[in-house]
TrEMBL record:
One of its GO terms (cellular component) is plasma membrane. Its main location: membrane. The chain crosses the membrane at residues 336-353, 360-380, 386-405, 433-454, 466-489, 515-537, 856-875, 882-902, 908-932, 953-972, 984-1010. It is found in: Cell membrane. It is a multi-pass membrane protein. Belongs to the resistance-nodulation-cell division (RND) (TC 2.A.6) family. Gene3D superfamilies: Multidrug efflux transporter AcrB pore domain, Multidrug efflux transporter AcrB pore domain like, Multidrug efflux transporter AcrB TolC docking domain, DN and DC subdomains, Multidrug efflux transporter AcrB transmembrane domain. This is Heavy metal efflux pump, cobalt-zinc-cadmium. It comes from Ralstonia pickettii OR214.
Length: 1031
């Protein structure tokens, strides 16, 4: 006899056990190095050019900033799409890159192309932080006993942010709220006239008085000195004493013509928290691909360091949102699911094998196979997220080991062989069938490696984990299981099959014979059940992915675009007070407007509320999140002139990153004329409000910004010998308060602005009457050389792929996403007529769902075709291959019924569950037909089918129960972190019920009927009836 690999394994069993222990240690170490994510960064890689141009109108920003940047970035490699938004004083241009693009390379190319943009003098763009839509891992506020907002803001910008940015893994720290310190020179128009000083002279004098100079080096003997001319302004008195001009030989100082005071930059945002109407907030951003748990631990250490030594005792950093809380809750959900799943698997193994040692050997394959996955994931830099890892089916992982162990136990139950002989013979019998059938499951998972987008980011780690684990399970089943079995079993062990298996067989074999005798009735029943189930699937509805619960609400409220910060803050005060009184809400944060760095392109009319939940035991009896949203919505409906939508903290950021719109879904109307866009958007909004299930419908309005235009009459200005720059200085500095220079205070820098007092610029008429000096000493009103008029301009200008658009956002509640949007598309298409050159695009979650469905519609049939070809090449005939593949649609019956019972929709998560289910169904069919084919060489087809199915009864039921019960906890869970797993698990749990019935009752009937003309074997044929190798 030749060398038998299994015999060699048994001779080296000590080495096998040692290697298994080493694998376990290596796997644990690799798992600790994997970056675990509660919610993966599902948004594609994007980079933004953020350009602030204070005081400039939306139209100017678009024409002079946004369009030049878009043109400069047009050739950046690997770009999938680009979009932009222009608004008052701010331009944000976003490039979304193709999946798989390296972040460092993308940012490098982006910077190189951006440098070629032709921007106005003094204007510079900055890149967005190297983070993603899920990168906001901590929010904190500053508490200062008796400390004013200006001082708190200064500490935030120059001490706290700098300290936290030094933490490895932190991409940036964004500041929001507070008041930025600024020095103000407030000239008196009357005193300027009295001394004959123009505004331009004052601005020039201030700039010239705030400089240091260098005098190079001076030698003195053998030494040399650095020569400095120190002239920087440092105090208010320094500013007051700046000489602007002379009058009859007497110097005219700033104090003679103006007041100098310490004030604040005009605010574009404000933050409120619980009972505090005005606070300073910081937002810590995680660097892309960094480990959130590790970074958060370091951030907390840094916060403690700041609180205990760096900051004054009166100032403290107080975190109020920490991603680790969500990580811990989600990890707890996953751990519970895994522990219960593994326990159920172990129980099934013990019950069906009738031996605890055999069950333990098989169960040990689970951690060992997962260790191989963790090592491989670390090596190939595959991130791990708790959403997909919680959906791993341990029952499928141990299928290969079950096949081997069950055959070993059957040989031992027959009692005719020694332990080692039984192990060798049983393993050799099933190894080819086991390898092939497990390989089929791996092929069934292969579509997950080719899908992209959000669904790919979430579920690819699961595919990698399952793929590596299944390959490892094959090796472990042929090495670890035989070796360990020879250790733990006594040499005289003769186990007995559990009594209930014999009872089932006594019932099963007569039933199967009756069904084989009535094939047409069986076919009709199966086909009818399939057709009815497929028809019922049309009522399930479709959605992209289940909403991932975050234990909070993120409420966005939009006021009329013309409101100022004070009015917006007063509305937020009232709502914040109402929200804090709700027992279900533990804390409330409010963001009004935008942060200082321009990373959120909005205005003071925009309010965002973080509503963080109290523990469940503090909620009113019977209250749910959905009911809470309804209660809050009823209150919001009482406030006139607002639009609102509910989301969640991370979800809101992801939705905006995917589509560029602050909402779950949107209709984007493209065209050039803003007035036409707004008119047609109103029509679309009216139609959307008619569709049942569509909520939070609102337009991101672009027009209506009141604008005071100062249009210079060049001919009139020339008659008075007035330069255009003098008028522009009046607008930019005296009215707008633009900084003239910077005052340095150690490492801190604050602006110094020249601005007329509030009374001189308080109204349209006051600005018209502002006096401007002529070279010959006259003082004429601005209206004599410029046309001052009120007009309406755009608030925002949105662009995508170089085209203007307006967005109408909406959400879907109480109805499936696919059905609601399909109806909405029909209603809008039938009732809204668009002018030539205007187009509509439906974006957001619906678009992501359609893209994902399109990919699966191509990849899944190709996968089934590949599996069929593999089966055909293995069985060598069309009939058997087709019979196994027919398991696929029939296996779907249970999955669809489970979704119906649980009131779930057909989502991408459920679709991935069907892929797993199809692989398992094919595995059972392969091994059953292999048995029957082998037995039919010594028996007629009917008896071979009955005997083969009886032999496969225990392993088929075992694998079905293992696959189903392994995911039963995930299917029943409604805890935080279970949302994406539940549809997948439901499909597999339900599908395994019908797959088992199909394999044990329908497939044998089909096989017998398909081979009814096969000739019976010769009477003297002698074939081992227990062999199960593939031909």
């Amino acid at each position: 006899m030749g060398f038998n690999p299994i015999a060699g394994i048994l001779k080296r069993r000590l080495l096998i056990v040692f290697l298994a222990v080493a694998l376990l240690v290596a796997g644990v170490l690799s798992f600790r190095e994997l970056p675990l994510q509660a919610y993966p960064g599902v948004a594609p890689l994007s980079v933004q050019a953020i350009t602030q141009w204070p005081g400039r109108s939306t139209t100017e920003v678009e024409q002079q900033i946004t369009i030049p940047i878009e043109n400069a970035l047009a050739g950046v490699p690997d770009v999938q799409s680009f979009r932009s938004v222009s608004l008052f004083g701010l331009s944000v241009v976003t490039l979304k890159f193709k999946e798989g693009t390296d972040s460092f390379k993308a940012r490098q190319n982006f910077s190189q192309y951006l440098a070629s943009a032709n921007l106005p003098t003094g204007v510079q763009s900055s890149l967005s932080p190297d983070s993603d839509a899920t990168g906001e891992i901590m929010r904190f506020r500053l508490e200062g006993d008796g400390v004013d907002l200006t001082t708190l803001k200064s500490y935030q910008d120059y001490d706290i942010s700098k300290g936290l940015k030094h933490v490895q893994g932190v991409a940036d720290v964004s500041s929001f709220g507070g008041k930025v310190k600024e020095y103000h020179i407030v000239p008196s128009p009357a005193k300027l006239q009295s001394y004959g000083i123009t505004l331009s002279q004052l601005i020039t004098a201030i700039g010239n008085a705030n400089n240091n100079t260098g005098g190079n080096l001076l030698r003195d003997g053998e030494q040399q000195f650095v020569v400095r001319g120190v002239g920087l302004l440092q105090t208010v008195d320094d500013i007051r004493n700046v000489v602007v001009n002379t009058n009859n030989g007497v110097p005219v100082r700033v104090r003679d013509i103006a007041e100098v005071e310490v004030g604040n930059v005009q605010r574009l945002g404000q933050v409120q928290y619980n009972d505090q109407p005005d606070v300073v907030e910081g937002i810590v951003l995680l660097k892309r691909d960094a480990n959130a748990t590790e970074v958060l631990a370091k951030v907390r250490e840094k916060v403690a360091e700041l609180n205990n030594g760096v900051l004054p005792k009166s100032i403290q950093v107080k975190p109020f949102y920490d991603r680790q809380v969500l990580l811990d809750i989600t990890m707890g959900t996953v751990e519970h699911t895994l522990v219960v799943g593994i326990s159920l698997v172990l129980a099934v193994l013990f019950v069906f094998l009738g031996n605890f040692r055999a069950a333990a050997v098989v169960a040990a394959v689970i951690p060992l196979a997962l260790c191989v996955s963790f090592i491989s994931m670390e090596h190939f830099h595959v991130p791990a997220n708790l959403i997909s890892l919680g959906a791993i089916d341990f029952g499928v992982i141990v299928d290969a080991a079950v096949i081997v162990m069950e055959n070993i136990m059957r040989h031992l139950e027959e009692g005719a062989e020694k332990l080692e002989d039984a192990i060798i013979k049983a393993t050799n019998e099933v190894q080819r069938a086991m390898i092939f059938s497990t390989g089929i499951i791996i092929v069934a998972y292969s579509p997950l490696f080719f899908i992209g987008g959000v669904e790919g980011i979430i579920f690819k780690p699961m595919a990698f984990t399952m793929g590596f684990a299944l390959m490892a399970s094959i090796v472990l089943s042929l090495t670890f299981v035989p070796a360990t079995t020879s250790f733990v079993f006594g040499k005289t062990l003769h186990p007995h099959s559990p009594a209930f298996i014999a009872a089932i067989l006594r019932w099963y074999k007569p039933l199967l014979r009756k069904l084989i005798a009535r094939p047409m009735a069986v076919f009709a029943t199966a086909i009818t059940a399939l057709l009815l189930t497929l028809y019922s699937a049309t009522f399930l509805g479709t959605e992209f992915l289940p909403t991932l619960e975050e234990n909070n609400l993120w409420l966005r409220i939009t006021l009329p675009n013309t409101v100022d910060l004070d009015y917006s803050a007063s509305v937020a005060n009232d709502l914040r007070t109402y929200f804090t009184k709700q027992p279900e809400i533990k804390q409330v944060s409010v963001q009004i407007g935008r942060p200082d760095d321009g990373t959120d392109s909005t205005g003071v009319f925009n309010q965002e509320y973080g509503l963080y939940f109290a523990p469940p035991d503090q909620w009113e009896a019977g209250m749910t999140k959905g009911k809470l949203v309804e209660r809050l919505s009823k209150h919001l409906e009482k406030i006139p002139g607002i639009e609102y939508n509910f989301s969640q903290y991370i979800q809101d950021n992801v939705d905006e990153a995917l589509s560029g719109v602050k909402g779950e879904n949107s209709v984007k109307l493209f065209g050039n004329d803003l007035n036409m866009l707004e008119a047609k958007a109103n029509e679309i909004q009216a139609q959307l409000k008619k569709v049942t299930g569509l909520v939070d419908v609102g337009i991101f309005r672009e027009l209506g910004q009141p604008t005071l235009n100062v249009s210079i009459d060049r001919q009139a200005a020339a008659r008075f010998n007035i330069n255009v720059s003098d008028v522009q200085n009046l607008v930019q500095y005296a009215i707008g308060g633009a900084p003239v220079t910077q005052i340095l205070e150690g490492e801190k820098s604050f602006g110094l602005a020249v601005r007329l007092n509030q009374q001189a610029r308080a109204s349209y008429d006051a600005i018209r009457e502002l006096l401007i000096d002529t070279p010959d000493g006259q003082h004429i009103p601005l209206s004599m050389i410029a046309k001052v008029e009120m007009t309406d301009g755009p608030f925002f200008i949105y662009r995508e792929e170089g085209k203007r658009y307006i967005a109408i956002k909406f959400g879907v509640r109480g109805r499936d996403l696919g059905g609601a949007v399909d109806e909405a598309q029909h209603v809008v298409g039938s009732n809204v007529k668009l002018p030539e050159g205007y187009t509509v695009k439906w974006d957001g979650q619906f678009n992501e769902m359609k893209v994902a469905q399109g990919k699966l519609m191509v990849i899944v049939p190709l996968t089934i075709l590949v599996i069929f070809l593999l089966l055909y090449s293995t069985f060598g005939n069309f009939k058997d291959a087709l019979m196994v593949v027919l398991n696929v649609p029939f296996a779907a019956i249970g999955g669809l019924l489970a979704l119906h019972i649980a009131n779930e929709t057909l989502s991408i998560s459920a679709g991935i569950g069907f892929l797993s289910l199809f692989g398992i169904a094919i595995q059972d069919g392969v091994i059953l037909i292999s048995y029957v084919n082998r037995l039919s060489q010594s028996e007629n087809v009917r008896e071979a089918t009955v005997d083969g199915a009886a032999l496969r009864l225990r392993p088929v039921i075992m694998t079905a129960m293992l696959a189903g019960l392994g995911l039963l906890p995930a299917a029943l869970s409604h805890s935080i972190g279970s949302e994406a797993q539940r549809p997948l698990a439901l499909v597999i749990v339900g599908g395994m019920v019908t797959t088992t019935i199909l394999t044990l009752l329908v497939l044998p009937v089909v096989f017998t009927w398909a081979h009814r003309h096969r000739r019976p074997p010769p009477r003297d044929s002698d074939v081992n009836p227990t062999a199960a190798m593939l031909p």
